[in-house]
């Protein structure tokens, strides 16, 4: 199964009249942040594939629609706060699922467990944002991000019980510390991500945030059982349908 991964810049290969033909064989799209939601909208409408996104530390004009009390004001008569993000999202028509600080079981993308030959949902977890560097929106300290990761654990324990694994894809904006990250205050990765991938062993961690201007720069790194991929611009990753 193929995933188109994008982040941080509008890539001319994707934002193209030929995109539907070029990416016709992808099964889903993963958007790793710092992208205008109009671009996400274009991807959804052009490729017509399941699309998932998180926010980075830029292009945050609509971040408040998915977090905080402003969503209650803009979308009245919600039965519960649990579905604020989904309802706001549908109201604004971007057509992609927001994975920020949540865990998703994606039934429309089945994964077959080889031992049992049983079809199960694709298991995805995601977090938005970057390390705190100037107190801007969607920036977090190590401790704050660790708390957000801990809130994902109950859902992943249920995954382990039901499906025999915790998570398949971990979608973030920032990278783990000392893997693909840089040493300036803005582009350091999170140490708690290193703990997360070691503990829960997703097949892929897809991130953005680190711009690649050198074709020789490292873009994919295997860490334990997890392939860590920098989605800057665009890249296609492949995951076996049988695991």
From TrEMBL:
Residues 17-212 form the Calcineurin-like phosphoesterase domain. One of its GO terms (molecular function) is hydrolase activity. This is Metallophosphoesterase. It comes from Treponema parvum.
């Amino acid at each position: 199964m193929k995933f188109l991964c994008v982040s941080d810049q509008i890539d001319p290969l994707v934002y193209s009249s030929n995109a539907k033909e070029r990416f016709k064989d992808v099964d889903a799209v993963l958007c790793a942040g710092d992208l205008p939601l109009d671009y996400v909208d274009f991807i959804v409408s052009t490729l017509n594939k399941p699309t998932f996104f998180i926010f980075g530390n830029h292009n945050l004009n609509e971040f408040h629609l998915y977090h905080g009390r402003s969503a209650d004001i803009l979308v009245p008569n919600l039965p519960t706060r649990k579905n604020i993000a989904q309802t706001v999202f549908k109201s604004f028509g971007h057509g992609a699922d927001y994975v920020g600080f949540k865990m998703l079981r994606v039934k429309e993308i089945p994964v077959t467990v080889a031992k049992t030959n049983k079809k199960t949902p694709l298991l995805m977890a995601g977090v938005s944002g970057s390390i705190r560097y100037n107190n801007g929106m969607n920036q977090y300290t190590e401790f704050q991000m660790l708390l957000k990761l801990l809130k994902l654990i109950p859902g992943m324990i249920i995954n382990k019980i039901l499906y025999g694994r915790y998570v398949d894809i971990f979608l973030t904006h920032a990278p783990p510390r000392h893997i693909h990250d840089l040493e300036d205050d803005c582009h350091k990765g999170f140490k708690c991500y290193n703990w997360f991938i070691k503990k829960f062993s997703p097949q892929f961690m897809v991130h953005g945030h680190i711009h690649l201007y050198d074709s020789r720069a490292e873009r994919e790194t295997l860490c334990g059982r997890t392939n860590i991929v920098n989605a800057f611009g665009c890249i296609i990753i492949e995951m076996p349908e049988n695991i």
